[in-house]
Design brief:
Blueprint: H1 3-30, H2 33-49, H3 55-86, H4 89-93, H5 106-142, H6 150-185, H7 191-210, H8 213-227
Helix pairs in contact: 1-7, 2-6, 2-8, 3-5, 3-6, 5-6, 6-7
Length: 228
């Protein structure tokens, strides 16, 4: 690996592993889409405790579970495809030369593919854990007692929210794995592309969290919910 490869790889790892802590730090000062969604989901779970028929809540969670299952299945297929190339020997890897990939020693090519595989594998594990937590949330909704004290309703809604919010946080982290896997795949064309991919992915994700139309709309909805 050249010095430029090491620099690009360092920037990529810092962007990949540092995105979450960075967004949490920024959210403390100016807020973020994910932070606003925590309050929205808490409000959802509080509203759930006031409904006699909770079918709509189960249906909404069922949609999230189906989405998570789809992404996890797709992720597994991608892992199998990348692993097939990685362990398929030089013959399987020579095909990248036809699409303009950088000519590098086999060991470095294996390292580049391993980075893509690592991003996908982490995302797959995040999706699996998200699905388990979503199923726990469904059970908690089904077990919600018919309480009459408002304090008990609020307490139970918060308890369910403490399961739902981490579940969807893991779902989001798994989805981000696709972005960083794409940036890692750019390394096949050279370290410059890895560096640009890492920076662009970080900028895109930060924009969606902090300045996208969806972020502004959800922030407004959160304020309305808190005022109510």
């Amino acid at each position: 690996m050249s010095l430029f490869d090491w620099i690009a790889l360092f920037v990529f790892v810092m962007a990949w592993l540092g995105y979450g802590p960075l967004m949490r730090l920024v959210a403390r000062r100016s807020g973020s889409l994910n932070l606003d969604m925590l309050s929205v989901r808490d409000a959802w779970m509080r509203a759930m405790t006031h409904r006699e028929m909770r079918l709509i809540d189960s249906q909404l969670l069922g949609h999230s579970i189906n989405s998570g299952s789809f992404f996890a299945s797709t992720n597994l297929l991608l892992i199998a495809a990348v692993a097939g190339v990685l362990f398929g020997g030089e013959a399987a890897q020579r095909g990248f030369a036809a699409v303009g990939a950088e000519a590098v020693p086999p060991r470095l090519m294996e390292a580049k593919l391993a980075l893509v595989l690592l991003c996908l594998a982490r995302g797959f594990l995040d999706f699996i854990w998200a699905l388990r937590q979503l199923n726990y949330t469904v059970a908690l909704i089904g077990a919600a007692p018919e309480v009459h004290e408002e304090a008990d309703r609020v307490a139970y809604g918060k308890a369910v929210g403490r399961v739902l919010n981490p579940a969807l946080a893991n779902f989001n982290q798994g989805a981000r794995g696709y972005y960083f896997a794409l940036a890692a795949a750019a390394w096949l064309f050279g370290p410059l592309w890895l560096l640009l991919g890492a920076v662009l992915v970080l900028a895109l994700l930060a924009w969606r969290q902090l300045a996208s139309p969806a972020a502004f709309a959800i922030r407004q909805a959160r304020r309305l919910l808190e005022q109510g």
